[in-house]
Amino acid sequence: MLGGKIASTEMEQAMESARVTRDGALVASPLTGDDRTDPVVSLRYLFQHAEERAIPLRRGEIVTTGAVVTPFDVAASCNIHAHYLNQTLFAAAVFDR
Q1: In angstroms, rounded to a whole number, what is the distance separating the alpha carbons of residues 59 and 52?
Q2: Whole-angstrom Cα distance, residue 67 to residue 37?
Q3: What residues contact 30, with CB distance under 8 A and at least 6 apart?
Q4: pLDDT grade for 97, boundaries at 50, 70 and 90
Q5: Cα-based distances in Å from 22 to 54, 77, 86
Q6: Which is more confidently placed, 44 or 1?
């Protein structure tokens, strides 16, 4: 899921508040401990990696820097909602058999 821009000053709160529901049931909570990544640090590593290899990063490209919630399965059609910072994103997973 792709949401709106999150200010760097809100990143910690966004990660701590992240939850995912599937058909109304909680299926993913924030990662903790060694499983947790820091998206800002990961982005810095990406910039460094690209610069060292002269790989241009173009304006408008979408960059993902890891997950902030535990993995979950989607094996059948369902409604998925991601919640963070008092916002909700919606995605419909549709499987056609």
Answers
A1: 19
A2: 7
A3: 15, 16, 17, 18, 19, 36, 68, 69, 70
A4: low
A5: 41, 10, 18
A6: 44
Nearest to 47 by CA among 37, 57, 39, 38: 57
Residue 12 has pLDDT above 70, yes or no: yes
- Here the tokens at position 90 are 């919606």
- The full DSSP string for 20-83 is EEETTEEEE-B--GGG---HHHHHHHHHHHHHHTT----TT-------SB------SSEEEEEE
Q: What is the pTM of this model?
A: 0.77
